[in-house]
Each structure stands twice: as structure tokens, then as C-alpha cells.
Input
Amino acid sequence: MSEFAPFKALVHQRCGLHLEGLAEARLFRAVASLQASTGLTDTTQLLRKISRDPALFDQFVSQLTVNETYFFREPDALDWLVNTYLPERLTTEQPPLSIFSAGCSSGEEPYSVAMMLSERFGERAKALFTLTGGDLDHQVLAKARQAVYGGMAFRALSPAFKKRYFSPHQGRYKLHESLRQWVTFRPFNLLNANEDSPGGPFDVILFRNVSIYFDQQTRRHIHQQLSQLLAPNGILLCGVTETLGNDLGVFELTEAQGIFYFRHAEHPAIVPATPLQPSLLAMDNMAEESISVAESTNKQIASDSCTDVAPQAPHQHATENEPTDSISHQLHTAHRLLNQNAFDDAATLLEELLKQQPWSIDALVLAGLVARWQQQPQLAYDHFKRAIYVAPECWPAHFYLAELYRQGELTGKPAQCQRSYAAVVRLLTTAPTSNGGLDTITPPLPPGDARFLAERYLDAVNLTLASTSTTQGVG
Ligand SMILES: C[S@@+](CC[C@H](N)C(=O)[O-])C[C@H]1O[C@@H](n2cnc3c(N)ncnc32)[C@H](O)[C@@H]1O
Output
């Protein structure tokens, strides 16, 4: 048995996190970091210490959680919640209605809801709704309470909202005090939702982009915990790709206006809604795709991911032959502008740069990210595809290409989404610390996080596609 197995078992038992496969690398780093900070090199002693010292255990767990989040993530569900579901509920129920973000990370999700509710209900919003965020990770909760954000958090937020709800603060942006104070943040463990109670019962629980870190048995246990926190008429919303994986028999899966959510089985829906057979879910959008997946299973992922790009690109980094300081300086400047959300300035600089160095991987990846945040998904796609053509090992380009599909910015291609995430997993399995062919900038996401997320998303996409194919077989 590996010396790390007892650490895995402890974390799984207390927090549910499944630290197999890729997540092991996180665990190794976290153990090494605790060994350095405590001076305890003997892993048995270290294990005994963290299992008895709650503060140290929290510090350890903070290094194991994946806290990726941003404002207005998967906005369709939030839009439906704020502009359709909650107004309907208010026609029959006394306010305040309570909303809980379970696994809120650094707060972008509940604060996004706060902004949207303010837009819809104005000054009355705070009297109509309570907002709570809960997370296992104490470090992200501290960030959430501060409500000071930089670059990537704003990637999907419109400049108008940013201007309306944030003020510049020491090179970053602080959420306005009235919204910050509206949201209450609490330490919360999904595994012990009742002991570690965040309040409730809640009318709405957001459980988005969290369940991918748990195995199925743990997810079912979490559903049972959440069902105690959900009000009789309440709804539970999961992330877009997680819905099928969460249909575990504890809640009833329901659809309204294209949004899928869960509710207690015995209660009627408040808005017009149709309970669905799980297998029918995937049929709506993905029936055609299962055929192309079946056809493509024997093909090479990398070569699939590298088709449809401009011919005759040199298979080398443009900067390799011309390592001039000015190019590298401009790349760093573009990267900084991107992180400051100065998208127009970054785009102008990168356009110039790409005229000089059309095959610079760094410039192509940055230009793809800028285009994505300027809501130009097709342009983003073109840049990422070019990056992959020049450097098939460019996992950041594969990752963000997959994200364009998963987030619905480019529509209707789960098979391509699947291939791109698979490429990330394959590349980072072979070279776990690879910089993805980037010469100058650091990858926008640590390789360990990218591989971890890609594996989880891949599972979700595979599940959806498998369900589609089963349904087709039956039908
Ligand atoms: C990827 S973030 C999702 C944030 C947000 N819900 C969103 O959709 O953007 C997942 C969060 O779940 C939290 N988490 C993981 N295990 C948890 C547990 N057992 N109890 C509560 N939170 C947990 C992590 O700390 C992390 O902040």
C-alpha cells in the first residue's frame, strides 16, 4: 500500500474528494508542502497530526480542492432562475426566498446571482431574497468575504456590469459593499450538511461544478444531505454537464424551458415543468453526435484535433528562431492587459504581434483567450486551432477549445468537446508539467488543474454521449 493511501482515505472520508488518478499529483504536492511547513517528514506522524489538528487539516484540504470559478458562469441557468423561476415563486410565496450556493468557492457564483437579482428587482431585491455561500475550503471563503477580484474572474462578465457593481481597488476590483454584505458565507461540508448546517431550508440550492470531484456513491450521499436542506418546493441546480451524473434517484429530474433541475419527487413544480426520463435528456441536442463519436473512436485524438487549419504552417515556434526581447516583452504586456480585462488593448497588441509572428503559440493562445472574453467564439476557435496546428502538444489550446463547446459558446459538438478534453488528458498524462509549447507566458491554468478538470469533464461528456447512444439503440 502506498504511503499516500491513508491520506487519500482520510480526505475521502471527511470531504468526499476522490484523489485517484490525476488528483494524486495534488495530494503529493500537498503532503510535501505540509512536510516542509511542519518539519514532519515521517508520513505516519504527519497523518496523525493532520487528522487531529483541524486547522492543519483545513490547510491541507485547501491544497486539494479545485476552486476554478468566475462571474456569470453558465449564465443560461442563472438567467432562467432570476427572470423566470423566482418571479413565479414570488407570486405564490411570502418572501424572503433563500438561495444557497453549495461549493461557492471564492464567491463569484452567489455574487453573480446578487447582481442579477439587483438588475431584476432593484432595491427590493434584498428584502425578497437571502443569499448564502458555503464551501469546505476556508481559504476561498476568506477571499469570498473580501470580494476583491482580478482578471480571470471577470472573463464572462459584461463591462457594463463590471462598471456598475465594482470599484477599482489596489490594481483589482472590489464588489460594492451593499452586494458584498448581502451574501453570507459559511464553512460547509457537503458530506455533513446537517451537522455543518449553513441554515435553510433553502428554496434554491446551486450545486454547480462541484459534483465532478466525487464518486457516484459520495454524490448519492451528498444528495441525501442536500435533500434535508432543500425546502419542500425548492429546486437544486447542477452544472450543465453534471445533470445526468446527478440523476441518482434521490431527487426527481425536471426540465423547464430547456433548463434541467432537481426537486423533491413528491412535490409539484411551481413553474410549468415536465419530468423527464433520464435517457431522453441527452436526446434533445446530442442524438446526431453519438454516431460521429462511434465513427471516431479509432481515430487519433491529436490528428482529429488538428484538422481544418491553414496549410503550410511551420512546425516550430516562431520565437525559437527570433528570441527577441521585444516580442517577449509584448507578449508579457498582452498577458498583463488580458488579466486586467483590457481586452481591446490586448487584442490590438496581439493583432500587431501576430502580423510579425503569425505562428507564435503564445500569441495565438492569448489571442484566443482575448477573443473568447470579447465574446467572439469563432475567432477564439480559429486562434486555438492554429496554435494546435503549429504545436499539437499545446494543451491550453485543446483545453479552451473544449471549453468553447462545453460552455455552449460554440454549439452542438459534444464529440469535438470530447476529443479536445481527451487530448488534454493524453498530453498531460505523458508530460504532466508540460508548458504546452508556450515559450514566454505561463499557461493560463496550471497543468495539474487542467488535466484534473479535463478528466472530470470528459467523464461527464462521455456519460452524456453514452446515454444518447443507449437511447438511440432502444428507440
Ligand atoms: C470548481 S468550484 C465551483 C464553484 C462554483 N460553484 C461554480 O460553479 O463556479 C468547486 C468548489 O467545491 C468545493 N468543495 C469541494 N468539496 C467540498 C465539500 N465536501 N463540501 C463543500 N465544498 C466542497 C471546493 O472547495 C471548490 O471551491
Remarks:
- The chain is about 55% helix and 10% strand.
- The chain has three domains: 5-62, 75-276, 286-468.
